[in-house]
Amino acid sequence: MKIKIILILGWLMVAVGCIESKETKVPQSVVATFVNKYPTQENPKWIKDENGLWEAQFESKGERLRAGFQQNGLWVETEYSVNIDNLPAAVVNAVNQNHQTEKIVSADLVHHYNKGIFYDLEIQTIDSTYKVEYRKNGMRL
Q1: CATH code 3.10.450.360 for 26-134
Q2: In this structure, are residues 67 and 37 in contact, taking their beta carbons and an 8 Å threshold?
Q3: pLDDT lower than 50: segments of the chain
Q4: Residue 7 — left, alpha, or beta (φ > 0 → left; ψ -120 to 50 → alpha)?
Q5: In what order do the strands lie in the sheet with 63-69?
Q6: Could you tell me the residue ranges of all domains in the chain?
Q7: What pLDDT digit, counting tens, does each position of 100-115 carry?
Q8: 39 vs 131: CA distance, rounded Å
Q9: pTM of this prediction?
Q10: Which of the residues 2, 38, 77, 125 has an alpha carbon 20 to 30 A from that of 98?
Q11: How much helix, strand and coil, in percent to the nearest 5, is found in the chain?
């Protein structure tokens, strides 16, 4: 009986390990695009985000960056963490006008393949957070 239990547990560990490795293996097309776009970066941390994009997390010149890629290797966006105090005045003014009782809790500068360049802001309400996007000139997307 003990041998059966040990064999079953061993088989389960192998099966789970196989499943896990399939989900966490970054496709070669994604790695190739990353290396081409960021040739000086080595060993980024890879995760698969909630949108199904492969996200490389790394630092460059003291900045934290996240670059997102589709499964087929196409680059989608790069996000740069931004100090809230360094947001453009037009963005801050727009947020203050449109979200008067709320506050910005985090900000990213995003370079997106389709939307162009914008700020992705996380806004805190009394009981939740949500995201909004603004251009440098304060125009909301």
Answers
A1: yes
A2: yes
A3: 4-22
A4: alpha
A5: 45-48, 54-60, 63-69, 75-82, 103-112, 116-124, 129-134
A6: 26-134
A7: 899 999 999 999 999 9
A8: 31
A9: 0.78
A10: 77
A11: 35, 35, 30
